[in-house]
Amino acid sequence: MHQFQDELRQALWKYALLPVLLLTVAGLLLIMGSWQHYVVEDNARQRQQLVSGIQIILDDGANRVDRIAEQWEAAPRSIEKIQHDGKSRAEIMAAVYPEMDNNMAGVEFYLLDTKGAVLAGTHRQLPAGLQDLSEEWGILQRMAKAPEEMQAELAGCSYRLNRYLLLGKALRTAGKVKGFILLVLPGDVLQKQLNGGQQNAILLDRYDNLLFPWNQQLAEGKIPAVFRHNRASLVHYDQQLYYSTGQVVGYGFLVLSVTPVTNLLSRYVLGAGFLVALFILMVPIIGVSVLRESRGKAKSIDELVEAFAAVKTGDWTHPLNLQPASGLAVVQEAYEHMTRSLQELMKKNEEEAKASVISEIRQLESQFNPHFLFNTLENIKFMVKLDSEAAMRMIKSLSKLLRYSINNTVRRVSLADDLAYVRGYVEIQQLRFSSRLDYQEKVDPSSLTCEIPKLIFQPALENAVKYGADAKGRITISLEAELCEDTLQIHIRDRGCGMDTGTYARLQALLDSEENDSVHMGVYNIHRRIRLMYGKPYGVQVKQREGGGTEVSLVLPIIREEGKNAETGNRGR
Amino acid sequence: MGNEKRWRLVLLLLVLTAGMVVLGSWQWLDREEMADDLPDLVVYSPHPAEFTQPLLDEFEKEAGVRVRLVNGGTGKLLQRVREEQENPQVDVLWGGAVSMIKPDAGLFAEYETVNENMMRPEFKNREGCLTRFTDVPSVLLVNTDLVGDWKIEGYEDLLDPRLHGKIAMADPALSSSSYEQLINMLYAMGKGNPEDGWDYIRSLADNLDGNLLESSADVYDGVARGRYVVGCTFEEAALTYQRAGAPVRIVYMKEGVISEPDGVYIVRNAKHLAAAKKFVDFITGHGAQSFIARNLHRRSVRKDVAAPEGLQEKDNLVMISADAGDTEEIRQEWLERFCRIFHGEKG
Description:
heterodimer; A: alpha+beta; Heat Shock Protein 90; five-stranded mixed β-sheet; 16 strands; rod-shaped; B: D-Maltodextrin-Binding Protein, domain 2; 2 domains; ten-stranded mixed β-sheet; 10 strands
C-alpha cells in the first residue's frame, strides 16, 4: 500500500538532494582548484625562478673561479708581487679581468693573500661585515683547509641586512696555498635580480641562515626550524599558516618558497563551512518537505485505493475525501459520480425486481380463478336443474369464496381462516360430486395460527378433485397440516390413478427449475408463489403414493400471526 | 530499478572523484624528504645578536653544527635551565657572569676545554664547570663634551657635588653590570673590606639624587647622548660607544677595577654533548677570541690574545679581586642593603 509513497519519497530525495550534493562537491572542487592555482603553482613558480637564477650564478661563478685557479697553477706567480711590481700585476690582472668581466651587476671579486688582505679586486677593501677574514676565521680558513675544493657559503651580518653569498677557491703554486680568489654576491643584489624584490622565495644554507631577509619578523638571520625541509607542506608559525616548498640547489643551499596562506585558508574554511552548513541545513529541510509532500500525495492515493477496496466488498457509501490541491479532483468527481449512479442503478434494479415479483405473484394468485369459476358455474348450471336449493348454497359459497379471493388487500392469512374458505370450496365440490367426494382434514391445532399465503393450497385441492378419482370414480382427498421442525407442512393426498411417468418427470423437472414458464401447471404455480415469497428451501413436493394416488406437500415457513384475524392481520405490512 | 542503479552509480562516482582529488592533493604535498643529518645545538644566550651572530655563523661552518639560539636575560635563561634540568632543552648557556652562575653550578656539566692551558691564570676553570670566555671589567664612562676640566679618575670623584644628579647608574637589582659596580665600589672603597665600603655607597646615593636607571643600556646610552656626565657601566659597552665615535671616554677607577669574566657553560645531561664541547672549544679558541677582541669589544681570556685595540692592557690597571658577593645570600643581603640606603636616604 505504501510502495507508492516510498517510491515518491525516493524520487523526491533524489532530485532534491542531488543538486545540493553536486553544488557541495563543485564548491569543494573549486576550492581545491583555486588552491592549486593561487598557492601551489604560484609558490612553485617563485621557487623555480630563484632556483634557476641561483643555479646559473653558482655554476657561472664556479666556472670563472675554477679557470683562474687553473691558470694560476699552470703559470705560477707570486701573489705578493702584485702590490709592488707593476709588471707582474699587469700580467696577473690581464688574466683575471677577462674572467671577471661579469655581466651581472653588483658581483664583486677579490684577490686575497693568505692573511686575508685585499691585493686586488673590485674595491680596495672587502665589503662591510666581511672585513675580518683571516686564515683562522671565515671562508679563508675553509679554503685553506681544502684548497682543492670550491667553497660557497653565506656570510655577513644578518642583523645589518648585509649578507653575502661567497664563492671562492685557494690559489696554489706548486701545491702551496699562496692566496685566494673570492667572489662576493651581495644578498640584496641577488634578491632584486632573481626574485624581483619579492620575499616569498628565500635562499638558505644548510644551517638555516638566510641570504636575504624573508620578512620583518624573521629578519634575525635564521629561518625557524619548522620550515627546514623541502617537503611541500603547511607550516604553522607565529599564528600564521604558510605553504612551504623547498629545493636543494647545491653547496648545501636550499631554496624555500613560502607562501602565507592564512587569509586564503580562512576564506576557504569559510566557504567550505558555508557549503557544509548549507548541506546540513538543506538535508533536513528537504527531508521534512519530502516527507510531507510524499505523505500528502500518497494519502490521496491511499484513500483512492481504500475507497475502491471498499467498493469491491460492496460498500458503495465509502466517502472519498481527497485533498483539493492534490490534482485528483477529477478522480474524486468521477468516483462520486460512479458510486452515485451505481447506487441509483442498483436501487432501480431492486425496485424493478420487487415489482416483477409482486406482479408475478398477483398473476399466480389470480390464475386459479377462471378454472374454478368456470367449473363451479358449470356445476351450478346442473344444480339449478337438479337441486335448486343446493344451487343456492353453491352460489352462496362461491360468492363468499370469490369475495375472499378477489380481496387483493389481503395476501397472507392464518391457516385457520384460509381453511374456512377452503372448506367453502370443498363444500361446493361436494355439492357437485355429492357422495363421490370424500374430504378429510387433519390439522395440527398449533398450526392454525400460522400465516400462509392466501388460498395457497386451493389449486392443489382442485387438482386432487380433478385428477383424484379412482377407477370407481370416487374421489378421496385428505388434507393434513403439521408442524415439522421449523416448517409448516401441508399435505394434500388423493387416491386417484396418479400421473403418468412422463407428466410426473416433467413436473419434477419444472419444480427443480427456476423458470417462469408460460405454460403453467397448478402445482407449479403454488411452488412458484412460495419460492417468490419465502425463498429457496420452501416450495412444493409431489410424490406418487404407494398404492396409487398423489401427494402434494407444501413446505412453508412457520410465521405466526400475532393474534390478529385473517382479514386485517397483514394490513400493516 | 535501472534508474535506481544509475543514481547509485552517479553518487558513487561523485564520492570517488572527491576522494581522489583530496587524496591526490595530499599525495602531492608529501614528496621527497631532504636528507638532514646535521647535529643541532641549542644555545641560550643573553648576548645581543650583534655579538652572537658572527660567532655562531662561523662555528656552524667550522663544526658543521646547526645552532638554535634563544635570547633573553641571564636571570630568565638560568631560570629556564633550572626548570628544565630533568629534561634539558638546551645544551649550552653562553654568557652570564661567573659570579652569577656560581650558585647554580650544579646545573652544569664539568668540562675542561682543550684551550685551558692557554687561559690567563685568573680565568682558569677552577670549578670544572665554569669555563670563562671573555673578560668584562667594570668601568666609568665619561662624556667628554660635558666633563670639561673636572677630574674624573675614580669612584672618589663621583662624590663631587658638581656631579649631583649627573651620574648614571642602574638599579643593581635589575642590572648585573650594576651589581658588579656595587661589588667593585664596596671592595675598592673599603680597601679590600666590603663592610667599610658602605659609607661610600651612602655618599654616592646622596649624589645620585634619587635617580636609579632601569637597565644598563640606559646608563651608557644616557652618557653618550649627554643626559649624564658620567655613568657606571662595563667595558664592552663603553668601548662599543667609543669605537662608534660617541663623545665618550673610558675611565678605569684608580681605586681599583674588578673584572668579572663571562662564561660559557655546558648544561648537565645536554642532549648534544659533543656539539656543546665543540662549541666551548671553538669559543675559547684563538680564532674566536681574536675575533671577539678585534670586533666585539671584549677582552680575551687567553694569554695569547691582546686586549682590544684602544684599551689599556690589564697589566697597567689597578686590578683588585673580590672573593665575596658571588653567593646568593650575600647578593640578596647586599641588594637589600643598597635598597635601604638608597631609599632611606631619599626618604
